Amino acid sequence: MDAVLNKLKNKVSTVLPGNPLTREYEIGKLLGCAGPGLLWKLYAAKKRSTQQEATVWALEKKNLESYPKSQKETVLDVMKYGVASMTRIKHPKILSVVQPLEESRDSLAFASEPLFTSLRNALCPSYSSVETNSEALRDFTLTDIEIKYGLIQLTEALHFLHSDCHRLHLNLVPEAVVINKYGLWKLAGFEFSKLSEDSCNGTNGNNQNQNSSSLETVISVPIWQTALMPACQPALHACSPESILQGKVSRASDMFSLGLLICCLYNKGQPLLDTGNDYSAYRRGIKDVSYHFD
């Protein structure tokens, strides 16, 4: 038993070498992974000063060694942007950040409310290559009631995001959803989110007429590129056709992605558009899905 505990202690001590967050939190077992490329590792943690439970999100930069240098910087910028955006948004159905992002030479890290795991790991415990909290997830399955209630929570989060924050999420995948320790689903993964033009133009969120007229406000986004590493851009299989084929998005784009997420939930975690990172396969696959866009 002592050998097991020492092994665990040594493993935990190497999670965030030199990161300032370790001065604030004691880091425990690995709960799962989240975010683009499942690069964020989720660890159970306790705040040293209060013993309050939390979850530490850690990204080890060594996991980006296979990336071209320019794309490595892109991924780090994307991750920082996602955490910064999420930190500013306060809503019961959106992940609560309790300790801002800290960066060291070897890692990025921040702390959130205590979690059970990510939706991706809940659907497919063995999806990632790391050892997760396997004992808790080994026989874990989401019931129909849990899925329906979880989807209600996500729609509430999206409604707030669209109507009050004037922001589009644009990467609604299981890796962007987490389940807290009480079983509540929280929206995370704001790495590719964008402010809509009505926000930039000063639209008043309380003006019903303005809101109604801006429901289909369309903004431009970068065209999906085959040459980029997957973590540098939204997941191809979860994107709306107008975003991939035209570089245009609106609130309807998030609704399309929500529909694809629902299909994934009822398909054992497998995407409806199982295209991997193959742009040509996406173009072919999307023809088999009913859709409408200008």
Please describe what this structure looks like.
Belongs to the protein kinase superfamily. It comes from Fasciola gigantica. This is SCY1 protein 2. GO terms for molecular function: ATP binding; protein kinase activity. It holds the Pfam family Pkinase. With 294 residues, the chain is α+β, with helices and mostly antiparallel strands. The chain has one domain: Transferase(Phosphotransferase), domain 1. It is built from ten helices and twelve strands. The strands form four sheets. A five-stranded antiparallel beta sheet has the order 1-2-3-5-4, sandwiched between helices. The radius of gyration is 19 Å and the shape is globular. About 7% of the residues have low confidence.
Percentage of β-strand residues: 15-25%
Give the biggest sheet.
5 strands, antiparallel
What structural class do helix, strand and pairing data support? alpha+beta
CATH class: Mainly Alpha
Distance between the termini: 63 Å
Give the strand tally: 12
Q: In the CATH hierarchy, what is the superfamily?
A: Transferase(Phosphotransferase) domain 1
Q: SSE order, as H and E? A: HEEEHEEEHHHEEEEHHEHEHH
CATH fold annotation: Transferase(Phosphotransferase), domain 1
What CATH architecture would you give? Orthogonal Bundle
**Which sequence of strands runs across the widest sheet?**
1-2-3-5-4
> How would the global form be characterised?
globular
Total number of helices: 10
Count of discrete structural domains: 1
Average residue pLDDT:
87
User: Poorly predicted ranges (pLDDT <50, ≥5 residues)?
Assistant: 4-10, 202-214
What's the Cα radius of gyration?
Answer: 19 Å
Domain Protein kinase: 25-294
GO molecular function: ATP binding; protein kinase activity
Family: Belongs to the protein kinase superfamily.
Protein name: SCY1 protein 2
